[in-house]
């Protein structure tokens, strides 16, 4: 092991080549190249194989990271992929979009010791993309087919992860989604420069070849009632995600040209997929030639500012009420945005929106913020500085303030479905059951807007709960 590993002292941390900012800001292609095999092997050899693997501890999926880093360092990529895929349904996606700087890489022992983290995400991406190229990734082939079926509401990461796990056990799986493509936010919420849509389409083909059925353009509660879905299937999983945008109550917030982040990103992604998007053609959701202001500090805000740059905006500013150190988004994404020409206006918050004579936004009036005493969560409380107001020209304002759950009992026409005060679905965390027998829930609709990796974890946990429920039901039927 000493021959192949523990080289963090003699080998410096390195990322795959990143396209130059002037080049990448003109298109939506992914910005990082893949590691060449020898560089992936060299970077994996930096792993210290520590006794307590904090990278694994801080991964929501508890991926066996030291194990597949060791195998990669030894050139055993097929085995590395098998170890990676054993805990992660979509390693090729997590390797691209997980905020590794906040999770595995940020907690790497050699990072804490000052030697620079192992580039876990880039190696994970390399291992999985190589596995696809070499034909090592194969459709699920259950050892035996079961008659019991599961209906899953939502074709996002939680629903797909649950569907794959259940299909592996031999259950018949049908996934319903109100949109026209598989992937949820992976398709319509995350831009191509972070996740090429062909990566999602490749995984969709694999799931279809595994025997999972999809019914797209079907909205539960509108086209099919939840009761009808329960009658069709032996168990149902709700994995709808959260799509309702948080709003901003400020004078002038109803002006034309002020839009929610997801509406803006969905239009841009549809345009990239080749759809005819009227709002792009008309310029309503096209930043070309415009002064753009994005409000928010999370990863969605970073997606919006970097999309606006690529659409040819005249200027792009990100308005955030806290400082850089307190941003909830990935610091790596902030750096990429700055390189591409985004200007960050720290410790500032919108106070009003100014419009012109036809009701179109023309400026954002913002106020400077002082960060005061820490609140109950440990974060400093933002306080407006009196007399600090200033105006920023704005032809397009994007509100990236986060997402909230829709009124699911009303939308699904299921009054027996209990929700929390935050409007998330109430579950028993031991098995992810809801208050309706045979109905389970997973992902953002349970925990609130969160990371894709958490959705995958919840989907797999829900599949385990569903399997236990179906097995118990089968046992009872057999005993009668």
TrEMBL record:
Record key words, sorted: 4Fe-4S, Iron, Iron-sulfur, Metal-binding, Oxidoreductase
Domain Dihydroprymidine dehydrogenase: 25-135
Zinc recorded as keyword: no
InterPro entries: DPD_II, FAD/NAD-bd_sf, FAD/NAD-binding_dom, GltD-like, Helical_ferredxn
Entry keyword annotation includes Oxidoreductase: yes
Source organism, top-level taxon: Bacteria
Domain FAD/NAD(P)-binding positions: 150-459
UniProt-listed NCBIfam families: gltD_gamma_fam
PANTHER family noted in UniProt: GLUTAMATE SYNTHASE [NADPH] SMALL CHAIN (PTHR42783), GLUTAMATE SYNTHASE [NADPH] SMALL CHAIN-RELATED (PTHR42783:SF3)
Protein name from the UniProt record: NAD(P)-dependent oxidoreductase
Lineage: Bacteria, Pseudomonadati, Pseudomonadota, Alphaproteobacteria, Rhodospirillales
């Amino acid at each position: 092991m000493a021959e192949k590993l523990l080289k963090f002292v003699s080998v410096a941390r390195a990322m795959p080549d990143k396209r130059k900012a002037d080049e990448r800001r003109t298109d939506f292609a992914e910005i990082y190249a893949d590691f060449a095999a020898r560089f992936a092997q060299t970077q994996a050899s930096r792993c210290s194989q520590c006794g307590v693997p904090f990278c694994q501890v801080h991964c929501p999926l508890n991926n066996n990271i030291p194990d597949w880093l060791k195998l990669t360092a030894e050139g055993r990529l097929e085995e590395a992929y098998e170890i990676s895929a054993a805990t992660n349904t979509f390693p090729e996606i997590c390797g691209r979009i997980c905020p590794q700087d906040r999770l595995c890489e940020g907690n790497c022992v050699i990072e804490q010791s000052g030697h620079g983290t192992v580039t876990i995400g880039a190696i994970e991406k390399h291992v999985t993309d190589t596995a696809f190229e070499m034909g090592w990734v194969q459709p699920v082939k259950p050892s035996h087919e079961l008659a019991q079926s599961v209906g899953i509401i939502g074709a996002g990461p939680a629903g797909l992860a649950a569907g794959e796990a259940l299909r592996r056990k031999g259950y018949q799986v049908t996934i319903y989604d109100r949109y026209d493509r598989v992937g949820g936010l992976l398709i319509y919420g995350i831009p191509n420069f972070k996740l090429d849509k062909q990566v999602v389409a490749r995984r969709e083909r694999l799931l279809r070849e595994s025997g999972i059925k999809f019914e797209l353009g079907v909205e539960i509660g509108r086209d099919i009632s939840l009761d009808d879905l329960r009658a069709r299937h032996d168990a149902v999983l709700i994995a709808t995600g959260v799509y309702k945008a948080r709003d901003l109550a400020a004078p002038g917030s109803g002006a034309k040209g002020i839009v929610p982040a997801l509406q803006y990103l969905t239009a841009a992604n549809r345009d990239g997929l080749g759809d005819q998007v009227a709002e792009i053609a008309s310029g309503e959701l096209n930043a070309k030639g415009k002064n753009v202001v994005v409000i928010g500090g999370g990863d969605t805000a970073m997606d919006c500012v970097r999309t606006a740059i690529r659409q040819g905006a005249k200027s792009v500013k990100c308005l955030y009420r806290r400082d850089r150190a307190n941003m909830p988004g990935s610091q790596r994404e902030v750096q990429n945005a700055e390189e591409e020409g985004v200007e960050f206006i720290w410790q500032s918050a919108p106070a009003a929106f100014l419009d012109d004579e036809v009701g179109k936004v023309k400026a954002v009036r913002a106020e400077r913020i002082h960060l005061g005493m820490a609140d109950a969560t440990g974060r400093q409380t933002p306080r407006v500085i009196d007399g600090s107001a200033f105006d920023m020209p704005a032809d397009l304002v994007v509100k990236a303030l986060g997402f909230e759950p829709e009124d699911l009992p009303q939308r699904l026409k299921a009054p027996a479905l209990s929700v929390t005060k935050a409007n998330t679905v109430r579950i028993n965390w031991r098995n992810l059951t809801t208050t309706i027998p045979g109905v389970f829930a997973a992902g953002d609709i349970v925990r609130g807007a969160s990371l894709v990796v958490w959705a995958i974890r919840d989907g797999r946990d829900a599949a385990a709960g569903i399997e236990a429920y179906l097995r118990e039901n089968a046992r009872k039927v057999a005993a009668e």
